[in-house]
Specification:
By secondary structure, the protein is an alpha+beta fold. The chain has 13 helices and 46 strands. Strand 24 (440-442) and strand 25 (448-454) form a beta hairpin. Helix 5 crosses helix 6 (303-318).
Length: 815
């Protein structure tokens, strides 16, 4: 009887443990998630993740702390997630366990994170370890090569190596693949710029050509330069226009750097994560495939700033942002500096596989624009690795086909910019800037590989290379083809020079177009350079500068949308998604009535965090300029539109419950009726919620011209948790029947009424900037025959139209 009772007890206890999913025997011995290393790299912790697949339960994770601050705390957050398809979906889910530790961490020993309270079962997991604050630092060890069935991520981007850590499990199983889905529907968004120019859609641009790429010159030096102090050339010359060529004027001050005007995000530093996230989204939405960092001066790589950018871009990708890939342009003339930089970049980034999903590959290898001739691959193993690792494209010295950079007063060549014959023999030479008609980098078979497009050039017809504040410079409003300036009012806004270069590049139809540039902003001042006194060689003013990033000055965002339009002409676009059929929506229903409504208009999440960061030092005060922005609140992530015979229904959804109901600038909806030429504000005919809501109703208003509105009537709305729905009678929008097009956008917490540039800075908008979602109830795409006829007609009138609307000048690529 005793034996029977004992046996039943054993069976019962076993059953209980089976039911609750715990079996103490399943926990294994400590297992290293690394192998005996060939190389160890001590790494400062920002954020690391480890993906592993445990074959048994485990009760702890031990992380080796190589070094930590003495008497300074670190705040580190530990998270454990069950793996879910990919890293983005995984970290957007709920963690199995999460704990924040604020303490003085030990050094040269293992640190234990106790998981016995949750006792994770066997399965695939992601361990996340992030430094969240504190005054100290914490270093961990990355071990090479990596262990099989263990995957390491730095700030959510896969890299080489394994973190020195261990868990008490019996073994490791095979890992799932990690493939993040990035949003690529931005080319279906429509936009109208400040000059009334519309970005092209498929019937103008043609279908997507997946074999075409766009690169963009990008500057990471704004942290390195910030302490020198800044002045604004445009502001100085508004007060003192007579000192343009006066080196000795006291109004220039002493030292520092000069901005040609103020960027839309202020005089920012490169390590301002708030700005970097904005830039990541803008460049993704434009269709830029790669950004090339300007390392063309001396041995500086700005690698610390680059790593911050890579961190921000990697995190943006978790939110679906198709950020550009990255590459570098190294010194053009001094090849010793090139060798120094190559070794540093290889050591700090490429050899460790850091952010490898962000590298720009060209024909099978990571690309760098440089000539590596001063490396010593025959005697140095690392140099040999570098030579084998990269695809090299040396940057051209020359701006023109004849290679003459400077001429004397009689037109005789003084300085040539020709590349040495042995370099041209072994490498394809790429161009970063060129005079129209631009230089073409050709493949060995003669086909065009690369052409550059630049906004303006520090060049004139008589001398060649000159300073931007010289005479007859090829500014934004200069046509090299016509040999004259565009003299229209506000000609600097239209970008005739830029458009001329785009048209030629698209005619040549290379594999990649390289654009100069995005965000150089600053220029040095020299007593004499390029035959100009008090010279500003590279940047000077609105007219004589070459940046595309929007400014707070007159240029605003005109060049951004000109770039967007031409990228679409070059690469093609996807068609606007078709709307689903008619459906009546009960906006008060607890049922999800939108689940079968399409399309779903996507918006980036994770971009409403605060800004609190210092920018450049202001030379007027010798203090850094402080930037704060806490206007982000409702994080817009998706929108839909539906209609029936009487109403149009709008829905927007946020990541969290919507707040601020009734506040000023709360959840505004801007509406444009396609094809209508009525009075508008920045193309929008109507707005909902400009005035405060009341008792479940909102005010629909119609523009009487600009930011002037008159009430049309009251419309119903419903707010439930994360979702806002609005029901608008068709007749209030002037819509009859079921064939119509609506372009729309949502905005929350706009701060400056009537200024569309506010959409780049404050609150949140969907979609970004001037972009609009398009809801079309019928197929409006032109037939191929109609499209050809349109292009023929456009070519006939091109000569008279180009200055008015340069986006219309499109030559179809050769088949």
């Amino acid at each position: 009887m005793k034996k029977l009772c004992f046996a039943l007890t054993v069976i019962l206890v076993g059953a209980i443990f089976t039911i609750i999913g715990f079996n103490a025997e399943e926990v294994g011995e400590d297992m290293d998630l690394f192998i005996e290393p060939e190389k160890v790299v001590q790494t400062r912790l920002t954020g690391l993740c480890v993906q592993f697949n445990a074959t048994s339960s485990f009760s702890k994770i031990d992380i080796f702390i190589a070094n930590a601050s003495v008497n300074r705390n670190c705040i580190v957050e530990f998270k454990l997630y069950k793996w879910d398809e990919n890293i983005a979906k995984t970290v957007n889910g709920k963690p199995v366990h999460c704990e924040k530790r604020d303490e003085f961490f030990p050094r040269n020993t293992y640190y234990t994170w106790d998981l016995s309270s949750v006792m994770p079962k066997k399965g695939e997991y992601l361990f996340v370890m992030e430094k969240m604050g504190g005054n100290g630092f914490l270093d961990v060890n990355i071990m090479y090569p990596e262990k099989e069935n263990v995957r390491l991520y730095e700030n959510f981007s896969e890299r080489f190596g394994s973190l020195k850590m261990r868990i008490n499990t019996k073994g490791l199983d095979k890992l799932s693949d990690n493939s993040i889905e990035l949003f690529d529907g931005f080319d279906t968004w429509v936009a109208t710029d400040g000059l009334g120019r519309e970005v092209p859609s498929t019937q103008i641009s043609g279908k997507v050509r997946n074999d075409k790429y766009v690169g963009l010159f990008f500057h990471t030096w704004h942290t390195h330069n910030h302490a020198k102090g800044m002045r604004n050339i445009t502001e100085i010359l508004k007060e003192h226009p007579e000192i343009v060529h006066d080196w000795d004027s006291e109004h220039w001050g002493t030292g520092g750097v000069f901005f040609w005007n103020e960027p839309i995000y202020g005089y920012y530093r490169t390590d301002d994560r708030w700005v970097l996230r904005k830039q990541a989204e803008m460049l993704a939405n434009a269709g830029v495939d790669a950004i090339f960092f300007d390392n063309t001066n001396n041995e500086l790589t700005f690698v610390d700033e680059v790593l911050v950018l890579l961190e921000v871009f990697a995190k943006a990708r978790l939110d679906g942002v198709k950020t550009p890939q990255i590459s570098f342009i190294l010194p053009i003339f001094d090849y010793d500096f090139v060798a120094t930089q190559l070794r540093e970049l290889y050591r700090e980034i490429y050899s460790q596989g850091r952010y490898k999903d962000l590298w720009f590959y060209w024909k099978g290898k990571p690309l760098i624009m440089c000539y590596p001739g001063k490396l010593n691959p025959q005697t140095d193993l690392v140099d040999a690795e570098i030579m084998e690792f990269f695809n090299f494209r040396p940057p051209n010295h020359s701006h023109t086909w004849d290679n003459v950079q400077v001429r004397d007063e009689n037109g005789n060549p003084l300085i040539y910019g020709a590349i040495q014959p042995e370099i041209k023999k072994n490498y394809i030479i790429w161009n970063w800037i060129s005079i129209y008609p631009q230089l073409i980098a050709r493949n060995p078979d003669g086909t065009p590989e690369q052409v550059t497009v630049s906004v303006a050039q520090n060049w004139n017809a008589k001398r060649g290379l000159t300073a931007m504040n010289g005479e007859n410079v090829y500014g934004r409003h200069y046509s090299v083809k016509e040999g004259k300036y565009d003299t229209r009012k506000n000609a600097k806004l239209y970008g005739v020079n830029f458009q001329e270069q785009w048209d030629y590049a698209i005619e040549i139809d290379p594999e990649i177009i390289f654009i100069t540039g995005w965000n150089e902003w600053v220029a040095g001042r020299f007593e004499e350079w390029g035959g100009v006194k008090n010279a500003f060689p590279d940047q000077f003013s609105d007219e004589y500068s070459r940046d595309i990033e929007p400014s707070k000055g007159d240029l605003k965002d005109h060049y951004y949308y000109q770039m967007v339009s031409n990228i679409r002409r070059f690469k093609g676009t996807k068609p606007v998604p078709k709307a689903s059929g008619k459906k009546t929506i009960d906006i008060y229903s607890d049922e999800d009535m939108w689940k079968d409504v399409s399309p779903n208009f996507f918006a980036y999440k994770g971009n409403t965090f605060d800004r609190d960061f210092n920018g450049y030092v202001d030379k007027k005060t010798n203090k850094p300029i402080s930037y704060e922005n806490r206007t982000g609140r409702n994080d817009l992530v998706s929108a839909k539109v539906a209609r029936d015979n009487e109403f149009v229904y709008f829905m927007v959804e946020c990541t969290e419950n919507i707040v601020g109901e009734g506040d000023k600038s709360w959840m505004r909806l801007f509406i444009e009726i396609g094809g209508r030429q009525d009075a508008n504000w920045e193309s929008f005919h109507y707005v909902v919620n400009r005035q405060k809501t009341s008792n479940g109703t909102a005010v629909l208003e119609k523009s009487t011209g600009g930011w002037n509105w008159e009430e049309v009537g009251l419309v119903e709305y419903s707010l439930k948790g994360k979702r806002l729905q609005i029901k608008v009678p068709k007749f209030m929008l002037g819509i009859k029947g079921d064939k119509f097009v609506i372009n729309f956008k949502w905005s929350d917490n706009m701060q400056v009424d009537g200024d569309i540039m506010d959409f780049y800075i404050n609150g949140d908008v969907a979609p970004n900037g001037r972009f609009k979602y398009q809801y079309a109830t019928y197929s409006y795409e032109k037939s191929p025959l109609t499209r050809i006829a349109t292009l023929v007609l456009a070519s006939i009138v091109m000569a008279t139209v180009i200055l008015k609307n340069p986006f219309m000048n499109r030559r179809m690529p050769e088949k």
